[in-house]
Structure formats: C-alpha cells, structure tokens
Amino acid sequence: MYKDKKVIVVMPAYNAAQTLRQTYNEVMAQEIVDSVIVVDDKSRDETVAIAQTLPHTLVFLHEQNQGYGANQKTCYKLALDQGADIIIMVHPDYQYTPMLIPAMASMIGNGLYHCVLGSRILGGYALKGGMPVWKYISNRFITLIENILMGAKLSEYHTGYRAFSRELIEQLPLRMNSDDFVFDNQMLAQIIWAGYTVAEVSCPTKYFAEASSINLPRSIKYGIGCLHTALKFRLARCRFISSKLFPLND
C-alpha cells in the first residue's frame, strides 16, 4: 500500500525463466507492493512453473501466443479486477531496476501525475547500460518526430517501465490498440491525447544476453508503427481524420 492505495506490479512475460525470480525478489523488496500479476504469453521455457512458486502472485496463462500488446491488455484488466489503485509495469527480464517503484508510485499516490515513465535517456543511462548505438539513434530520431507531431516533450516513448493510476487506465480505449509492440506507443499517445501530463524519472538500465529484445526487422516495423501513430494523432487533432485510437469528445 501507498497511502491506503493498493499497488500492483504487472509483468508481461515471455520466456523470462532466467530473470523472473530475480526481478520478482527486487520488486517485493520494495515494501509498498501489495501483489504481482504475471501474464505468460505461451512461453516455451519454465516461466510459468517459476511464476507459480512466487508468493503474492497471480499467474495468468494465454493459451496461445497473442503478442506483447495483448499481454499488456490482460495485465491491466486483471490489475483493475484485483482492485489496484496504482499499477506499475515492470518487464521480468531485469533490464529495468524495480528500485524506482516507490518513487514512481509516490508521484501517482500523491496526486501529482497519472502516468510516470522510467526513462533510459534521462541521465544518459541508455548507452552506459549497453543499448546498441543503432537503437539509441533510432530512439532519439523517432522520439523527436513524435514530440513534434504530438506536441509533447518526452525524452523517450519506448521504455517498458511505466506506472499508471487506476483512473487513467479505466478511461483509455486500450482494446483499440495493437496486440504487437506498438501497443506501448499507442498507449502513450492516447494518454497525451486525453490531456494528461506524463512524468519521467531517470532510470538505469542493463542490456545483457538474458534481457528481452526485438530483432532488426521487428524494430523497423515497430519504428514505422510509432511514426504512423504520431501522424494519425496529428491528423486526428487537426480533424482531418477520425480514429478509434483518438476519439473526439464532442
């Protein structure tokens, strides 16, 4: 709990057996976390068996691999069903340190923000943590275009470390989003569309063999999807198009 607000950490998992327990242990070391939800997207390793041994953890299995975005949709629905007031997504690959959970939760629990991101770019941690140079350059380029088209000033849109209020999750049309990796980007665009300020905290990150990563072809597809989302945002804002991702209120 944080100020009588229930804090639930969600972990969208896929082949995370080597790092799940380490991530979980550090998550639960942050004493404000009430419980963890692990949604497994049909892993081929021992992710489910390990998750089922973790205390205070709800484990949900997708019968078929549905994709990273579909996994998150399940995560957030289950968190709301479990009564979460503050929902924090942490990837179970131990790339992001769970030690920032109290700081992120406090920013939401004190009513300052409804969305907080753990940014790898703030503080220059991305390259120091081992992010490949090509990924760093593409991250900076896509983020620049997105900021211009969406009128925001985020340091990055591509972090997998995020905290949300219940109020925010309940009103976002997440079911309209992709089931693939671009879900992350669409969700942030919807938050900006709804008029919320997105906060960021500087987050150390690590790149190593066991950490999850998408290959070059899927990265290109993701990048194109991000730019398409930002362009659709701008066109919808100018009322040149209508979009289910960005519904008008009038």
Protein described:
This protein has 250 residues and is α/β, with parallel strands linked by helices. It has a single domain, classed as Alpha-Beta Complex (Spore Coat Polysaccharide Biosynthesis Protein SpsA, Chain A). Helices cover 40% and strands 14% of the residues. The protein contains 9 helices and 7 strands; from the N terminus they run βαβαβαβαβααβααβα. A 7-stranded mixed beta sheet has the order 3-2-1-4-6-5-7, sandwiched between helices. α1 (20-29) links the parallel β1 and β2 (35-40). α6 packs parallel to α9 and α8 runs parallel beside α9. It starts with 6 loop residues before the first strand and ends in a 13-residue tail after the last helix. 40% of the residues are buried.
How would you briefly describe this protein structure?
Helix 1 links the parallel strand 1 and strand 2. The protein is 40% helix and 14% strand.
Please tell me the overall pLDDT.
94
* N-to-C CA distance: 38 Å
Level-1 CATH class name: Alpha Beta
Tell me, briefly, the overall form. Answer: globular
Structural class: alpha/beta
Order of helices and strands: EHEHEHEHEHHEHHEH
Q: Find the CATH topology.
A: Spore Coat Polysaccharide Biosynthesis Protein SpsA, Chain A
Number of domains: 1
The CATH architecture term is: Alpha-Beta Complex
Cα radius of gyration in angstroms: 17 Å
Query: Beta-strand percentage?
Result: 5-15%
The counted number of beta strands is: 7
Determine the fraction of residues in helical runs and give it as a percent range.
Answer: 25-40%
The CATH H-level homologous superfamily: Spore Coat Polysaccharide Biosynthesis Protein SpsA, Chain A
Please state how the strands of the largest beta sheet are arranged side by side.
Answer: 3-2-1-4-6-5-7
Sheet having the most strands: 7 strands, mixed
- Stretches where pLDDT is under 50 for at least 5 consecutive residues are none
